[in-house]
TrEMBL record:
Pfam families: BBE. Residues 247-304 form the Berberine/berberine-like domain. It comes from the Eukaryota. PANTHER family: OS08G0158400 PROTEIN. This is Reticuline oxidase-like protein. The keyword Methyltransferase does not apply. GO terms for molecular function: flavin adenine dinucleotide binding; oxidoreductase activity. Keywords: FAD, Flavoprotein.
Length: 307
């Protein structure tokens, strides 16, 4: 169940969370640069630093096509480094001054706060800056709805500056789809790939989330944005993991395969299952076959039973 997609095996009635200690004060920051501000070189350096830096530092990278403020009527790409450090501002500025000089981080860019307030900041920095309290994390606006698509990839070798420039051109051409680069390394590298169903451990520099959201409920808008995501995903093929082209289970992506649960159910499950679970897929099939042999708990991408 831990990383194997619990919905394939039953109904989870309870769970236990193991807490870990965090400092009384942590630090967050967000630094944004566009292509005319040397964003490409920043992304090159981020790939070298983010997976290998201090284990207390998590630096997510957002990449989005936006309207240029420099050349009117054109688009550019904005790179945003959004980070959490389990320590003080002065220390993280010192670390990144040596490891990531192109970021140009200064103490004035940082906010020191409690860990729970860092969650609030990460969730909605504007609300945090306007005085929102942690209790607001419990709010649910059940009447709100928007549309979105997520896809995923894993990068195992740094993407060159020349290739990044090609990727920027494709993003600008498509117009809407962005990336979230989530660095791995650190504790992720210390856990063996077969320790839990989740297999994406050592050897992965970062995970890519393809991200697009829209509000227009029309079929044309849906088709347009889904096609944008598929096109960018196809374009990224040379730069990501292969055999299998791995994917992250929590970004459910029906484009990579679905199961009709007919006579070829196992083979259909292999298509998406090996992407999500790599070599752990067949172990999950064995468990599924024992605990749910009639395949009562199923969905389009659940673990199949063994034929």
């Amino acid at each position: 169940i831990r990383g194997g997609g619990g919905a394939s095996f039953g109904v989870v009635l309870s769970y236990t969370i193991k807490l870990v200690a965090v400092p009384e004060t942590v630090t967050v920051f967000r630094i944004e640069k566009t292509l005319d501000q040397n964003a490409t070189d920043l992304v090159v350096q981020w790939q070298q630093v983010a997976p290998t830096t201090d284990d207390r530092l998590f630096m997510r990278l957002l990449l989005q096509p936006i309207t240029s403020k420099v050349v009117k009527g054109t688009k550019t790409v904005r790179a945003s480094v959004v980070a959490l450090f389990l320590g003080g501002a002065e220390e993280v500025v010192g670390i990144l001054g040596k490891e990531f000089p192109l970021l140009g981080l200064k103490k004035a860019d940082c906010i020191e706060l409690s860990w729970i307030n860092s969650v609030l900041w990460y969730n909605d920095a504007d609300a945090f800056n306007n005085g929102a309290k942690p209790e607001s994390l419990l709010d649910r606006n059940v009447n709100s709805a928007s549309f979105g698509k997520r896809k995923s990839d894993y990068v195992q070798n740094p993407i060159s500056k020349e290739d990044l420039e090609l990727i920027w051109k494709k993003m600008i051409q498509l117009g809407k789809v962005g990336f979230v680069f989530n660095p791995y390394g650190g504790k992720m590298d210390e856990i063996p790939a077969d320790a839990t169903p989740f297999p994406h451990r050592a050897g992965n520099l970062f995970k890519i989330q393809f991200s697009v959201n829209w509000d227009d409920p029309s079929a044309n808008a849906t088709t347009n944005f889904l096609n944008q995501a598929k096109t960018l995903y196809s374009f990224m093929t040379p730069y990501v993991s292969k055999n299998p082209r791995s994917a992250y289970l929590n970004y459910r992506d029906l484009d990579i395969g679905i199961n009709s649960f007919g006579k070829n159910s196992y083979q259909e499950g292999q298509v998406y299952g090996t992407k999500y679970f790599n070599n752990n897929f067949d172990r999950l099939v064995k468990i599924k076959t024992v605990v749910d042999p009639k395949n009562f708990f199923r969905n389009e991408q659940s673990i199949p039973v063994h034929p």
